[in-house]
Amino acid sequence: MTTQVFVGIDVSKAMLDVCVLPTGEAFRVSNSAAGIAELAGKLQPLSPERVVMEATGGYEKEAAFTLYLAGLKVCVVNPRQVKSFAKADGQLAKTDRIDAGTIAKFGERMRPEVREIVGEELSELDVLVTRRRQLVQIITAEKNRMATSAASMRPRIQAHIDWMEQEIKTITQTLEEAIGKSPVWQEQVALYTTMPGIGDKTAHSLIAELPELEALLPKKVTALVGVAAYARDSGVFKGQRRISGGRASVRCALYMATLSAIRWNPVIKAHYTQLRARGKPFKVAMIACLRKLLVILSAMARTRMPWNPTFAATV
Q1: Among 13, 21, 61, 251, which is least packed, fewest CB within 10 Å?
Q2: How confident is the model over 122-140, as pLDDT tens digits?
Q3: pTM tops 0.90, yes or no
Q4: CA-closest candidate to residue 194, choices 290, 311, 305
Q5: What is residue 193's three-state secondary structure?
Q6: Would residue 304 be called left, alpha or beta, if left means φ above 0 and alpha means ψ between -120 and 50 degrees?
Q7: Mean pLDDT to the nearest integer, 145-150
């Protein structure tokens, strides 16, 4: 029987610490094009069952994409999962080398799902969507700051706001040009925006930050976004269901879309009205409506069916 190989990679800005199981071989390469190419050359002959690394805010992207193109089974996992696994395994010490070993052991024991890594074009779209969202957040902060700033500083703050608003327009134009070059993305935007409450910006976020939308079933996609309500019961105690984890950026975009949908989307509006009539708090009703909106979008993406109230009511 062939021994299966599992690789754990601890990612930092400058370095990649690598551990190979079951041999326990450990080594380090730079987190650069040359270092990643060297890593791919070492791992390809091993044909590992999993190459596992944590999501680290972007430092892992080049390595993950390069190893994926090299034909390796790459898994980018939530750091919280690895941290919980380390605690359960009794691993208290922490160094980059130890962390790489823990990640490799996590891959061996838990067998995380191997998902297709997004291509360079989709990654660039993600960068643009993320930057636009960051600028919107900074503008909000600057406008809040304006009210309490000294009069002498307000023209400078306003100039900063004006510059960022122009930058948002430029980024939006670049986004639209990128989507215009792809018939697939154009079709997705046209499909998603048939639903009342979903505009171009939300559609862009779904394409860039939730490419799995059309491939996953409702339970998985709601868990991925972080709007699945988890039970907290023990014995006779019945705890309040809560959402946890997931892709916060997608959740925020869909929350704003849900605010619009509870006014203009007949299916979501009826669901919201029913929940509020049953005494559900505003936030609970909103998350339930967001979850329903996401499930409908997922069904639309899978079937390629534009918005249809009759169909949506049955989802």
Answers
A1: 13
A2: 888 988 999 999 999 999 9
A3: no
A4: 305
A5: coil
A6: left
A7: 91
